[in-house]
Amino acid sequence: MKASEAREMSIQDLRDRIEVEKNNLDTMKINHAISPLEDTSKIKKSRRDIALMITILAEKEKQN
Length: 64
What we know:
Elements (H helix, E strand, L loop, with lengths): L2 H6 L2 H24 L6 H23 L1
């Protein structure tokens, strides 16, 4: 996800998306522990996307 995409989302949409992405990350980690993923960079990208969304959410909440 790009920062510009996340900035266009509403606060509630960001919260919902963060929850979904966290659940997906947990699932990926569990699957990777059982049988290694072919592309482990997906875990890193997912963590970065979550961090980006949390940062933008905090910025939006601070403005309001």
